[in-house]
Amino acid sequence: MKHFLYLLLFFPLLITAQSQEQDSVKVDLSNPHATIYTHLYFLQSDSYEPKKAAKTIFGLSEKVAIKKAIKIKQVLDGKGLYVDVNKIPTDPKYKDSTGYSAYSKYVLFPERMPQIYVEKVNGKWYYSTETVTKIESMYKEVFPWYVQKLQDIIPVSGHKKVLGIELWQFVALLLLLICTYIIFLITKKIAFFILQKIQHQITKNTNLEVDKVLKKLAHPISLLISVAFVDKFFPSLQFVLEVNTFVFLALNIAKTVFWIYVFLKLVKVVMRIYSEFTERTHGRLDDQLVPILHSFLTGLVIVIGIFKVLLLFGVNATTMLAGATIGGLAVALASQDTVKNLIGTIMIFLDKPFHIEDWIEAGEVVGTVEKVGFRSTSVRAADTSVYKIPNSKLSEIVINNKGLRLFRRYNTNLGLRYDTPPELIEAFVKGVREIIIAHPETRSDSYNVEFTGFGDSALLVMVNVYFKSLAWGVEQSSKHRLHIAVVKLAKELGVDFAFPSTTVTIEHFPEKKGLNPKYDTDKERIEGAIAKVLGEFTQDIKEGKNEENRLE
């Protein structure tokens, strides 16, 4: 009896305290935080007062405003958008400065639902005119017409709950997954067919490697379509906010991962097509651009994808960009040489001072360009050693590109003995000219073979020729053929090459003959010797070509 009296005494006080606590939360439209909190608080099940929530809608009748306010919350819940009121600004003069100019507005979810925001009107904050106008179309998008029809035909037994979820929701979720899988299979075949047609239109040929990549590219595209299908129809199942928040976070993460995968495969397809194009070009410097571009674009896709995932987890974009900028500046200052080399690499590919396999002279380094990388260029010297030249230095020093010559010039002097008769000198010069004309690797329209002067120990015959091939190895082989033919010519003519020597002449030496050779200057013999050497030279060339054709 005593406890009952205490209950009768304190029960009115308890009811009064609860009512005072509810009354303590009043309609407040003084700042973005207060307006959004007022709207959401008075639509909760334990504090449901839609008339107060409707105060956040400006310029409409109470009845219409109540419907608008309820639908705004239903759209947010249906899309799984959890509003963290602690992050909403409380400044009455708050301005959104993300655009070209600052406005007195606050967007709740700039990435996923930019149409829903509050703005300042006559000193108070209300849901914007755009939000109120578009809420009907957003509601129909989240909850299509068939949702209400579905609710009408669901029997009472379908609303029984298992683990907090109604039975009809289990069945609808199963049907949604089955439909999603069917859509995945169909769109995968369609996507591959379309991609293959596009690739054939661009490249005009069929490439098995590209087809394999396209099949892998069609897979994530079909997954993206499937995820979009689930994203479209999952709100119709009307799960609670907590479930929707988790599901849509998972869907957005999956969507981001699939997009990363799509762009990675797209980069691979583009680089494969570009590599086929570079293989058909004359220069090979653009061939080196393929792996560099592939690495750069791959890294760019991954970095952007990571930023996108971080945004999904609520990381502030401004803070993230500021951190990335400061971090990038610190890294740049700490690795100035690397940045300089990267800029040097860009300049090399823009200016193209040389191509792969060009013979260059760069300062003290002389050799063949083998590879241009992100940081350095590899040059193989004649002794097969490899020089690694930083691209920053290579872009600044003077480069003599032997590979850009139209022809390889070869100039030498042949020294004949001083006692060679003029007839044999003329015959020798004529024979060398004929050999150059008959040589398949020399320019027959541009050469010089002349008796140019008197050396210390020899009569000098200048030989100036141009080889057609720019390859160093082919040039050496061409020189070999030319030299052998010249030596044979000298042997047939009876002409001797001089070497540094000193001759002592004794006018009278009893019973001794001079050491000077006896030269045969018979004209017919000279012509026959030249014809014989040219015939053998021409025959050797034909046999060499036949041997090359046989090996090919």
Strand order of the largest sheet: 9-8-7-6-10
**Oligomerization:** single chain
Beta percentage is 5-15%
Through-space gap between termini: 116 Å
Pfam families: MS_channel_2nd, MS_channel_3rd
Membrane topology: Multi-pass membrane protein
Main location: membrane
Organism: Polaribacter aestuariivivens
Give your account of this protein's structure.
This protein is of the alpha+beta class and 552 residues long. It folds into three domains: 25-142, no CATH class; 161-337, no CATH class; 408-551, Alpha-Beta Plaits. Helix content is 57%, strand content 13%. It contains 16 helices and 13 strands. The chain has helices at residues 2-24, 32-41, 50-53, 62-78, 129-142, 145-153, 167-203, 208-233, 241-279, 285-312, 317-334, 336-351, 391-394, 422-438, 472-493, 523-551; strands at residues 105-109, 113-121, 124-127, 161-162, 165-166, 359-362, 365-372, 376-380, 386-390, 399-401, 408-416, 448-454, 459-467. The strands form four sheets. A five-stranded antiparallel beta sheet has the order 9-8-7-6-10. A three-stranded antiparallel beta sheet has the order 1-2-3, with helices on both faces. A three-stranded antiparallel beta sheet has the order 11-13-12, covered by helices on one side. Helix 7 packs antiparallel against helix 8, helix 9 (241-279) runs antiparallel to helix 10 (285-312) and helix 14 (422-438) runs antiparallel to helix 15. The longest helix is centred in the middle third of the chain and has 39 residues, at 241-279. The chain is elongated, with a radius of gyration of 44 Å. Residues 1-23 have low confidence and may be disordered.
